[in-house]
């Protein structure tokens, strides 16, 4: 679960692409694809700064970074699509559904009950989609 | 670092007081004292719901809860006094200064550079005050 | 229109359930139902703190509490589903459609014209649904 | 406590000045004075739209309008100076200290505990300043 | 591209209607129409204060005013319908698609990447709808 | 007033330092200095992404970028220190005091009168400090 490459120097863009892929998976790629026709340079910045710079820093575990991101997005209440991407990302980097639910419930204290409720409903959708996908993989 | 009492039943208020004391320490008590002359019932609610209910739940470690709170308050940008209390609380429950700094820098991605800067400056004040207090204890 | 029970002691949960039912009616129950599969404990907290504790306090009339809630949610602009629930609740506890419209228009002053517009459009939907339901009851 | 002039037609500006004076008193005048050197036209707009148009409308009592304003400003958390002016205004148009305290505590539910705390501390300052002024009037 | 009428005195309402029509075009009229059944007086205020007063002031070009509005609405993140109206308005008063895209990307710095992303996706929808309409006019 | 270097390739960091110096001047340097003891890496990011990447892009004039930033920060209401830095920056890159005042007044429409007022008072402080400094230079 480390993002730092050890042997060869890697550009911010390459490192960011690798980090985004590891953390956000398909949901992250969908955002990049959606940007292609509108602002392709912004896709580059999104790889480089958040993922190539910040998420690739060694001082905080990816799991802890996703706790911070889920909390922040739920508290702000203005970024439901991104909150869903990061609930998915949290599961990808080792948070359990229970832990994510706890983070969202806790936001009632700091950002009010509506922020917590809207975060929990977003999590409900992500968990359900993931359960359906997992079932599909098992049954197919 | 567990908050759940095991032998005797404990009221929400008692459990909340114990959790607030463990997590926020003196900074939490200052908030309670400041409420005494304005809205003493609100001090009770503050013990009971955030600390007696939420922080006392077993599904997420206190250290992880403080990551979430620091991130949320820095991202919202409307609660500088509470952010300082929880930077202090983060140190109390096991976050390092480096980890707190990483959380705050990461908020640049989700809430913008000013939110991160204002959070980092708040942390700078808390760290300096704590270093001064620690030095006082050593030298005195 | 009082929520305080006079004869028997009542738990926060019971009192909250009664208050939520009186204030939010079916819309409140829908929220509780939606939480069942995601975070049932949060439904308990929602009964207990907002409704069992805060709305059940005697110092402010329910009608006045709904003025405050409608104003706050419209000004924040991050809680459209909850704003609709509380426009409905406002009607339930004695606010007229005209008064609710005035509250929302006033938010243009404090949170800007978009906040007021989005609040007014939410009210338009609630008023229309309610008119349709009332007509249904009359005609059926 | 009515703002509508009955006998002579009155301009928006005149009506707004009268309403601002009635509602906000000296605190409102301080804002107007502070604008004089920066943006005097904005003082005119402040008289005209919020006070000459909105607060002067008959569909909602001034007391109810101040409930809405206090709730909105406390929930937003970005307007502490204006919140203090309107806590003062609430007292001017008939809200009790207890009612204002209830409104602010209720904001914990919708905007989080920090918003409620910061609102309560603002109220504590306004109440103390007013108590000091009243004592001065009595003793002097 | 000037809004100030030179020969005859014009009421705020007339001036606002003319400005709204020039700036927002059909999208602005849709908002006014939607208000008709809910709060017709608010449509009047919307003509008068934002458009009759503010946008009609000579001290800042309409193009510059739309830069400010697009930036503010994207940064706030609570007014997607109004953001789309003003992306359209920006095109109407002389901003290029590239300039609007730059403004929205820049919001990543001040309000975070999600605010920029949601703004860019809104712009993508407006640009696509406009391209479709232009093609329709050419081919029809 | 162009930031793009024409002859030699320049790193993002160098370009960002040059842009920050041109745009924010001494106020920007103060922010960098304040970060030195808390999070020096964040100073690097601040040079690189906002200034080395975004402000250095050719698609929008610096003057227009500052309109967007002043509007966004005033509308958000959570970044008064940064708003002051960018009011100063706006003057540095060619906005007049009148234009900045117009931008801030316009925010009343989108973010409410308190946001506009707090922005105007921030501008008042910046204008006064600058007038004092200019007078000092003339008289000294």
TrEMBL record, chains A, B, C, D, E, F:
Instruction: Return the protein name.
Output: Carboxymuconolactone decarboxylase family protein
Q: Where is the Carboxymuconolactone decarboxylase-like domain?
A: 40-123
The major lineage groups are:
Bacteria, Pseudomonadati, Pseudomonadota, Alphaproteobacteria, Rhodobacterales
Q: Which SUPFAM superfamilies match?
A: AhpD-like (SSF69118)
Q: Which organism is it from?
A: Pseudodonghicola flavimaris
């Amino acid at each position: 679960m480390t993002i730092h490459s050890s042997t060869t120097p890697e550009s911010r863009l390459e490192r960011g692409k690798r980090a985004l892929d590891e953390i956000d998976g398909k949901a992250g790629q969908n955002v990049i694809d959606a940007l292609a026709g509108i602002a392709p340079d912004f896709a580059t910045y999104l790889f480089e700064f958040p993922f190539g710079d910040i998420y690739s820093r060694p001082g905080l575990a990816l799991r802890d970074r996703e706790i911070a991101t889920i909390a922040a997005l739920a508290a702000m209440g203005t970024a439901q699509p991104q909150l869903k991407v990061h609930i998915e990302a949290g599961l990808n980097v080792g948070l359990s559904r229970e832990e994510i639910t706890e983070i969202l419930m806790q936001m009632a204290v700091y950002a009010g009950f509506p922020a917590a409720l809207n975060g929990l409903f977003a999590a409900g959708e992500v968990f359900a989609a993931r359960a359906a996908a997992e079932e599909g993989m098992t049954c197919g």
